[in-house]
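tool=predict chain=A
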Amino acid sequence: MNATNIFDDYQASLNHGTFFLLLSLLIQAIVLYVLIFAFTIGHRSILRTPQNQSLFILLIPNFLQLLFSLPQTLHYLRLNFVSPATPAYCTFWTFSNFSLNAISEFLMATISVQRHMLIFNSTVMRVRRQRILLFNLPLLFAIIYPTTFDFAVVVLYPCDGTLWNYTSNACGLMNCFFFNPILSMYNWIFNVGMPAVVNFTSDAILFIRVLMQKLHAHQRLPWKQQRRMAVHLFTMSGLYVISWIPVVVIGTIRSIQYSSALAIIRRNYITYFPSLVWFSLPWIAVGLLPELRAWMLKPLKRRTAVVSAGAASVLQNTYPLQVAHMIQVMPLMVGSISLALLTATGITFILIISLIPTYLQNHAISPSFDQNIVVLSVTYRTDLSSQNLVKIKNITELNTQLAQLFRPRQINLLITSYDFIISKDISNLVSIQCADGSLFSGVPLNLRFTLGPAQKQITNSQWKKYVNKLLNNLQFEYKKFSIIMSSITDPTIIRSVQLEFCSLEKLSPDATNTLITDKIRLNCPVAILGAGIAGSHIAYRLGPRFKNNLCIFERENYVGGRLYDLDNNENIPLAYSSNPIIPFGGMRFYANQPVVKQLIDELNISYYQYDYQTTLIKTRGKFYTSYNEMCSKSYTNLDCTDDSSGMNAQDQLWVKLLEEYGKNPASSYNYADVNAFCRYVLGDEATEYLRDSFRFRADFLNTDVYSYMEFLKQDFNLVAPIYYPHQGLSQIVKRMLYNAINFNQVRLYVNEPVVEINENIDKSYSVETMNYKITCKQLILAIPPLGWSNVQGTVANEIKSTKYFQSILPVRTIIIVNYWSNRWWENSILFGKYIDRAWTRQNCISFIEILSQHPAKRDMNVTKTVYDDGLCVGMWSDLIARNSQDDMVEELLRGLKGLFTDVEISRPIKTLTKIWPSAWHFQRSNSNVTNTELMNWALKPIGRFAKTQISLVGEAYNIDRSGWIDAAIKSSLASLYSQFNFNNVCYQNDAAINGNYCTENFV
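tool=predict ok
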């Protein structure tokens, strides 16, 4: 990534200073631990006393911390990043750190409580059963419980590994269980806070009990005999209190009231306090064990024996008395000295760390501003719960507002882009870590600023001063402000959004341009452009193979393309959501589409069957619910009866077209479009009947006959039953990407329209989106034809210039959905209460589908009132673009009353719209490209590239199955087989091809 965090210099220097301090403490601590363990192995009798057993057990987890956790910390501090940057490494690091710290805390708390028993009720230790129950088992529990708990929540707890922060110590401690409020709170209270509180409380009670015993002489214990145990406890407990109480206090304050200052203190200073235990405990052990000190001083005593005879005589006479005196006063003296040394070490540690920022500030460590253009990427917390339907109302006004807040007079400030950050799990809410170490779960907003000097003549030092002042304003002076957002669907709806500073990056701009030109660099060996059904299916299948080396980029702020559903609150449902939905795109599939059905079953998506009941058609001023009746009463000289197989009049006409096409397919190029072909084969009257009885309009005009008849051959074979997913077809894409991202670490970037696709010298590709410049070796282009209109570059232009690409005809479609206060359609006496579809060419309703006839949607009172693919698309587009919906609603009511003449229809309570510039695709008339040729070209669109390098996927490039999601899935299967050498896959009983669908037969 070609971006440098403005805090890097400061943080790097802070890390290096901490590194050398910890390294020096580590060396002396390791030496002492080794000496203590060596002494214990040679003098096992010392472990006969319970207090020494406790001390020895306590030393072990702290020694393991020095062996495992501290080297990892030192490695991070030396590099300023985590290496290796893998989820497995971070999991091991945090598990060892959490479990060993917890064991140490629980042991100390247990020892503090047990010391009461050893001092005041020492006789219980003489009974074996009581010793096991009150001494051994609590110590064993203090080891087993923390290890088991941390193994469960750190190692076994489900986690996708995408939250680790590889630029922070201990990977940012971004363990997934922290995002479970119950587990996180339990861990904080019982595993961190409670041992520290028990330790402190037990010491306080012990001090009071000892004091009271000394004041009551008649109940006085033999204090001289118990003094050593009391010194043991007070010294060790004091160490733990100094080390852990600050951690508990700071954490508790931050959980009650967030403070960025406390977050910085915790991250840079308090986080190292527990290491005081690791370093200081061996010194305390030396001070508390006279036998150990004597063993360590034995070599020194031998040297003092080598003296002159006279001097030796004097020494030998006085030495026993001196040693005896020293032994008598040594425990209290050593305890006092150890506590003093401990306090001094802690104070020194804090002072050294605290002085580093001052040192850095005095030495002017700051970002480099060699160029007079600076680009800043600033991320803010917002109070939004969803961003799908909002945008910044006026970027010019926001520029003015921010300039008034942040800008010194000498700086020109301009916002060049803004972007909502989208979650990898296909939701709006994300969890990010801000610069102060705090976590934010919500909808972040990223603003890109460019800064330039307002004066032509400005010194470098002045420029640094001005920019640093702005940085300070951004971070501290103006941390919170408001901006105005507006609804994408209804610009009249506006709201104020609160922003709060989160993090800041300095990007590298082009010195000749004040706009952002140096984008964030990404290396993606395999890149998928487009997160519709085809691109998402490829990501889902390639994820296990390529893992984090696979990236997918989507121009919209949602995934799924034309698989677009909204819930009743007009929000896009998440993966695995159970909310009722309204479909604005694809919504159904047939039971005999095995490619689709098996994928839906694989993703565990539930669906229901619905069979159409009554269809109402208005034509030539009359209303019909029967194709044959319509044929016989409104059209002349037509055969309007079922044939011997029971096929109705409409289907007989389609069969006649297919038979005529089959006689000489090449002759179909003689006709201008499908409408002309129909008039030649069927005649004018039959063609009018066919068009009136058919609910789609775009099929007949400007479409290539050969291509359309190839599509019709397959589409005509589809028969009921028809299935509808409860939560919509969009769940296919959401669940595939959820699995790809969470289980295989595939990287998803939304709100990233592709700008350029170029070829590099080494035959790799360079892809530019709004914010990224990506290098990749293999490219999957899941972009529909209209999506290429703003894409430039050598590769993009070469693809767009081919006859295959230019042959594709997008079909523009309008969707209008209405919610009603009552189910007025059930009141029709003329046509009955079971009408679920109606269409006409006599007004602009064109086609209505009454979704609330489905039992699953009955109580929603909702209709897809307009589904127009050509009759009145222009008119509806104009009405939708108006500031008010009033004119559109009036037109809707006029059209509905022209169809449902015998019912009262009140105004809808809510109207939602969706314009699809390319809902599905045919081929343009006279394209001279077959559907098979188009699909084969898509698998190798540029001849000089190998088939393994690049392919196009999507419904637009598989027009044999135009309009259906199995077109996109089959296109992606062909790409997987051709470009990535996947095994041939066969699906049985595919109705479209009237047999088994096998990938190898279509590549």
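Residues 374-518 form one domain. Residues 309-362 form the longest helix (54 residues).
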